[in-house]
């Protein structure tokens, strides 16, 4: 990636921006509207929300207020756990689309692998994909065994797996598996909710390039082929997060950041989260 407008080709041929805005915990209403509009006006082309976030309506309003046409923006949302199942997913999709005020989605994700339900959820998503109202379907928070279980019965391979991913949780096995299967990894909580900003290794690299620790981490993401969606509602931070295309980490620096892994999560483990 050389700019915010650069894309990564998914396994179904759809092109997805490699950098975007996450809106988890952005308040419905003017806060999320302003964040989406600011991001798009600054060059972002990927916006990631979820029904669980409770702000799809505000995201839709922000999209309408932005200075860019709809077909230039890549919009992702997700089906929540209590919406899963075949009929339930079809209904949840319509509700999300209505709240967003969109005619189609670019990417729809299974938010978590709900045991006993995610296969039926996927079957409904395949139907919506076949009908052309979703350009790509994928998953979120799936372990390797969840993906293997899903693909036994799937007609369409997931294009994306959006997971918690940051220098303290590099998920080596998952990354290798997704590379082998041509499933694109996408990072949520890429900065571990700010808990990595005081790390000595990251701070030293940031000082070298006159960048912030956040910018170094996000640069590490894109240089290791991870789509990343940092969340912010602060206009200056939204702009700062995207200012990562005027420097390049060395192989040694990428290795040293990756070596910070502690297999440490800020969110739930998908095997135990209900």
Automatic annotation (TrEMBL):
Keyword Metal-binding appears in the UniProt entry: no
Any single Pfam family the record assigns to this protein: Aldo_ket_red
Record keyword Oxidoreductase present: yes
Gene3D superfamilies named among the record's database cross-references: NADP-dependent oxidoreductase domain
UniProt keyword annotations, A-Z: NADP, Oxidoreductase
Residues the record marks as site: Lowers pKa of active site Tyr: 78
Matches recorded under InterPro entries: AKR, Aldo/ket_reductase_CS, NAD(P)_OxRdtase_dom_sf, NADP_OxRdtase_dom
Positions with a binding annotation for substrate: 111
Active site per the UniProt annotation: 53
Residue ranges constituting the NADP-dependent oxidoreductase domain according to the UniProt record: 28-261
GO MF entries: oxidoreductase activity, acting on the CH-OH group of donors, NAD or NADP as acceptor
Entry similarity comment: Belongs to the aldo/keto reductase family.
Identification of the protein by name: Aldo/keto reductase
Species of provenance: Filobacillus milosensis
């Amino acid at each position: 990636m050389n700019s915010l407008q650069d894309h990564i080709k998914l396994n179904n041929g759809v092109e997805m921006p490699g950098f975007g805005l996450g809106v988890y915990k952005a308040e419905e209403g003017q806060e999320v509207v302003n964040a989406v509009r600011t991001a798009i006006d600054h060059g972002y082309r990927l916006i990631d929300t979820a029904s669980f976030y409770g702000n799809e309506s505000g995201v839709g309003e922000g999209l309408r207020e932005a200075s860019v046409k709809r077909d230039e923006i890549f919009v992702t949302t997700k089906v929540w756990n209590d919406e899963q199942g075949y009929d339930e997913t079809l209904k949840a999709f319509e509700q999300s689309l209505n709240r967003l005020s969109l005619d189609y989605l670019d990417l729809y994700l299974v938010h978590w692998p709900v045991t006993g339900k995610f296969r039926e959820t996927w079957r409904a998503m395949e139907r919506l994909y076949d009908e052309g109202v979703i350009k790509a379907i994928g998953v979120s928070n799936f372990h390797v065994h969840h993906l293997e279980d899903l693909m036994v019965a799937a007609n369409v391979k997931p294009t994306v797996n959006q997971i918690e991913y940051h220098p303290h949780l590099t998920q080596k096995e998952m990354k290798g598996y997704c590379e082998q299967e041509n499933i694109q990894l996408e990072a949520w909580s890429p900065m571990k909710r700010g808990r990595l900003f005081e790390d000595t290794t990251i701070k030293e690299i940031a000082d070298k390039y006159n960048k912030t620790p956040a910018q170094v981490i996000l640069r590490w993401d894109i240089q290791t082929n991870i789509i990343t969606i940092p969340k912010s509602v602060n206009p200056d931070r939204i702009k700062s997060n995207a200012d990562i295309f005027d420097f390049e980490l060395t192989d040694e620096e990428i290795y040293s950041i990756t070596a910070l892994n502690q297999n440490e999560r800020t969110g739930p483990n998908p095997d135990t989260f209900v």
